[in-house]
Amino acid sequence: MPGRGAQPPPVLRVEGLGVRYGALVALDDVSWEVSAGEILGIIGPNGAGKSSCYDATTNMATRSGRVWLDGQEVTAVPPHRLAALGLKRAFQQNAFFTTLTVLDNMVAVLAREAGTGLLPSLFMPWREASRRAALEDEAAEILERFGVPRAMHGLRPGNIPYGSQRMLSIALAFGRGARVLMLDEPAAGLGGADMARLAELLRGLREAGVALVVIEHHMDLIMSVADRIFVLEQGRALATGRPQEIQSDPRVLEAYLGHAA
Ligand SMILES: Nc1ncnc2c1ncn2[C@@H]1O[C@H](COP(=O)(O)OP(=O)(O)OP(=O)(O)O)[C@@H](O)[C@H]1O
């Protein structure tokens, strides 16, 4: 890519993304990229087009533009295939199987990733017992890595603390692994201690080589963890740069805070 010097090639690159809802232009000619072991923060005022940008990237909205994953064009690839290729996403709202335990939610994700036919049999105890035990071990390890302790694995998701629910959401999105993980406001509703755990988790994933794209309204969090920030305003790219550049960019201050510093 031009101007990236010795940077590794991007894992995910989007170019010219556009989304319209009827007459409303939610996203207009937006391009960005993210590399392995990098955190790209996406910020912007409410309604700026951040979620539409995720929908466009993961082919969950009718859109224009193009998307490349690991150098391969994936513009026409449907969302579930993108996930299988390693482009994964967590949503603003937690989405669990509320009647399953925390552990079984994770097992269900692993079973789905393992392929056809396994999911129904996993919940029949007389079949696939050893396979199920192996998946349970794997699920428990992933949950612990994402900060959901074993004491919570037998509970229903609605009965664990909200901060742990958010971590569970990220674990379920990540599954067995991701090349790119896109998170939509992971810190929404979190208090200080949970926010610190989340920051630690994001840094750990970056350390492991995951490319992270994080929409976030909590400026302290995103400015402290992101390597680069991409700013959207009214569907268009306003600025991109390192956190300290973005924090002192008068255009961003004007758009985001309603005044220049
Ligand atoms: N399904 C939809 N139908 C019609 N308009 C939509 C739809 N989804 C989003 N919009 C509109 O598109 C624009 C961009 O919305 P989007 O949710 O992408 O912004 P956002 O930056 O993620 O906002 P927020 O920070 O509030 O989540 C907004 O004006 C929104 O009202």
From TrEMBL:
SMART domains: AAA. The keyword ATP-binding applies. GO terms for molecular function: ATP binding. InterPro entries: AAA+_ATPase (IPR003593), ABC_AA/LPS_Transport (IPR051120), ABC_transporter-like_ATP-bd (IPR003439), BCA_ABC_TP_C (IPR032823), P-loop_NTPase (IPR027417). Residues 12-259 form the ABC transporter domain. The keyword Nucleotide-binding applies. Keywords: ATP-binding, Nucleotide-binding, Transport. Pfam families: ABC_tran (PF00005), BCA_ABC_TP_C (PF12399). This is ABC transporter ATP-binding protein.
